[in-house]
Amino acid sequence: MYKLIKQDGKAKRGELHTVHGVIQTPVFMNVGTAAAIKGAVATTDLQEIGTQVELSNTYHLHVRPGDDVVRKMGGLHKFMVWDKPILTDSGGFQVFSLAGLRKIKEEGVYFSSHIDGRKIFMGPEESMQIQSNLASTIAMAFDECPSSVASREYVQNSVDRTTRWLARCKEEMARLNSLEDTINKDQLLFAINQGAIYEDIRIEHAKTIAQMDLDGYAIGGLAVGETHEEMYRILDAVVPHLPLEKPTYLMGVGTPANILEAVDRGVDFFDCVYPSRNGRHGHVYTNQGKLNLFNAKFELDDKPIEEGCQCPACRHYSRAYIRHLLKAKEMLGMRLCVLHNLYFYNHMMEEIREAIEQGRYAEYKKAKLEGFEQGNIKIR
Ligand SMILES: [Zn+2]
To answer: NCBIfam families, from UniProt (predicted)?
Structure first.
């Protein structure tokens, strides 16, 4: 299902064939937490900004509106009117970061909803059942994401449990995909590598899960407070132990510079809330760094956010107009900034794919990073 088309150094140019179409990699997945991209971006906008994969959150949709509601509406694709690939996370990350009063047991996690305090249990089987109800293209295995400051002993025990949970996820997914009334019987399952900042634990775990034959492999638990250098060190250590002939996904990362560095280390799937979150605050990306459109110097600036950008904001509107909208708290200001930022990321991935195909990735990365450094794009 995954075809490695070309390698340039360690950088991978691939294609993942799914029941909802082909994903060209490296790819940046656009985050729509509760089945919508924050900033009033509709699925009808996504074609125009070059979105290949939409990402939704299992935990959020389970809590509200409920995965049973989504299932009754025919699955996420029908519900949000999007016929291309959707990836759902396992819910694990939110359970560990958002929910209150958790208790982790071998069978799964007991926690209370962050919306109404209701007691919920989620284990590997429940996560697979919820994602099957959502009928996403790619489901993520249920894992624990241990804190980056957790002790070595804690992390080792947690990772061992995550491996046992992966076996249960795989079995449950196979069962669900074989049922008559399952909406997407071709749902794919990605495993998640954990191990905090302990290289040896991560490498052992990568080797173990690589043998379990999943559809793709993610690296989780990074970009949670460690330095960028630490993250690159972990990638250098772990990626070579994940199967080359399967997609490699770095979860929750990151800045354009982080993506350029991770592609260079063999990662080809990404997702991050930065472009939409920054856009909602009037912070927009350009090839010369990031701009804050609230800045007074844009008051009479009739240029688009970025000259030559083909996004819906830059094709029509000036920095001065968008600045006015933001200051007047008009929702359109936020929306235009988010559309531009997502287009910027998606377009950069297109350039990355082309550079790898042409065997000039190192050169492309260098030029791109030099451009960003004129501004301050490395800063979150
Ligand atoms: Zn633009």
So the answer is: Q_tRNA_tgt, tgt_general
